[in-house]
Amino acid sequence: MMSKAMIRKIMYVAVAATLFMLTLSSASAQQRRQVMLDKVVAVVGGSAILHSELVEYAEALVSQRRQMGYTSDRDPLDESLEALLEQKLLYNQALIDSVEVNTSDIASRIEVYVQAQIAEEGGIAQLEAKEHMPIYTYRELLRQRYEEQAYAQAMRNDVVSRVTVVPGEVERFYKHVDKDSLPVIGEQYVYAHITKFPSSLKDAQQRTKERLLDMRERVITGQTKFSVLARMYSLDGSAMYGGEMEPMPASYFVRPFAEALEKLKPGQISEIVETEFGFHIIELIEKKNDLYRCRHILLRPTFTREELMEPANLLDSIANLIRLDSISFDKAALQFSDDATSKHNGGIVSNSDILERMGVYDGARMTATRFLKEDFSAQGGKSLDDYAALMRLKVGEVSNSFQTTDIMGNEMSKIVKLVEIIPAHTASLEEDYIRLEEMALQQKQEKIYKEWLNDKIMSMYVYIDPAYRTETFENKNWIK
Questions:
Q1: What is the value of pTM for the model shown?
Q2: How far apart are CA 207 and CA 373, in angstroms?
Q3: pLDDT for 292-334, tens place per residue?
Q4: In DSSP terms, which residues pair with 418 in a beta bridge?
Q5: Are 205 and 279 a contacting pair, CB within 8 Å?
Q6: Which among 131, 39, 41 is positioned nearest to 77, based on CA atoms?
Q7: Which of 168, 403, 407, 437 is the most buried (most CB within 10 A)?
Q8: Among the ranges 33-47, 262-276, 349-363, which has the highest mean pLDDT value?
Q9: How far apart are CA 419 and CA 59, in angstroms?
């Protein structure tokens, strides 16, 4: 019988040969000479790393770091090779573990990128000349790389997603961490708000439903495709992919969406579905095992300028009464605010809305009321409009009304009160538990991931051309 090492070597030769044959079959004579000059520098599982891929990755890494004003002492080729080795391993393990990713949106992403490249180069012929390959080969190369990256990221997420920390671990982390390594927590803000939606919300909702009913009718009667309408009108991030979402179990969707989805057969379109995100119509594409592949169109109510000014004028009147001590901010929030999560707490803003949307119901995190400057962004979750208003205030002052949107993108008016400014300080367990919990979790996730990675390196076939082996790899296990 052949040894496992011999079988792996045969697999490597077959994969490398197939890769070269596919490339050579579509290349011109000049391109063939270039490909033959290319070299397989490493193989992980069934995936080869070519010298050209390594150089391209290293050039992108250097360019990105220049833009960030960052340099590294490591050779970019060595650093890039280690990153590609890890990516190939994650990709191969994802296939072994049948990790699911949404590959349906990759074609759309590639096409957007390719069209941008064509425009930049001045035409298809010019792009083909630059890349030394036909446009269809270029698209296929991009597809392979995009899919590999998607699978690799999904595999890594799968490994660390199950890692959690308990309070005792956070305390141990704090006691044992080098105090010089503790982060300096920047200036933080505690603030309260009163929010109001237009009183014409029901009329606007009805208009939105009528628009969706019209779209549904156009699709059912064959006047237009669902994906076309999604690209044109949907307010969800999936719009650029024709409304298509990543295949997921029904339980991963919010309840009304899931309930409507479960009633559909492939090709059917739902009635209007209302969720906290807005109003949807849903088309089921297919159901594979417990995974639902679907597309949807999301709309939210829109308002006229007069409708938006009505709550703004009301809030300005309330703000003036608060400044005259005719009513306290706490009582005004309880009486007038449309934010159910804060009105009973004096309007104090917390993380509850963000975490509920993420499906995280952690008491300590949900009641966190201190926000850094970077928390006021699309990524941080709190509105930049809030930050802009707060920066004009002194502690205890109340803003004028301003237009903004809630976390779901619904338009509304708001006033804010700056309650407290907490100066920058070194993180402490008493004052910054949540920040330290995040650090402890990140450290534990990295530890678990490294242990998992080392185990997979040992069990998966890894070959590195001797000319590319280096002692500068952070993980010495790559060199077997």
A1: 0.60
A2: 37
A3: 999 999 999 988 889 999 999 999 999 999 999 999 999 999 9
A4: 191
A5: yes
A6: 41
A7: 437
A8: 262-276
A9: 48
Candidates 283, 252, 246, 243; CA nearest to 265 is 283
Regarding the domain delimited by 187-200+303-423, which CATH topology (the fold level of the hierarchy) does it fall under?
Chitinase A; domain 3 (3.10.50)
Query: Which amino acid is residue 365, in one-letter code?
Result: R
Q: Are 129 and 30 in contact (CB under 8 A)?
A: no
Amino acid, res. 108: S
What CATH class is the domain 4-162+449-478? mainly alpha
| Residue 51: φ, ψ to 5° | -60, -40
4-162+449-478 and 202-299 in the same fold: no
What residues does each domain of the chain span?
Answer: 4-162+449-478, 187-200+303-423, 202-299
- Residue 341, pLDDT score: 86
B/e letters for 341-375, b = 16+ CB within 10 Å, e = fewer, are: ebbebbbbbbbbbbbeeeeeeeeebbebbbbbeeb
Q: What count of residues does the chain have? A: 480
- CATH number assigned to the domain with residue range 202-299, chosen from the 4 options 3.40.50.300, 3.30.450.40, 3.10.50.40, 1.10.260.40: 3.10.50.40
Yes or no: say if 230 and 296 are a contact pair by the CB < 8 Å rule.
Answer: yes
DSSP code string of 3-34: -HHHHHHHHHHHHHHHHHHHHHHTS-HHHHHH
- Residue whose tokens read 């069209």: 115
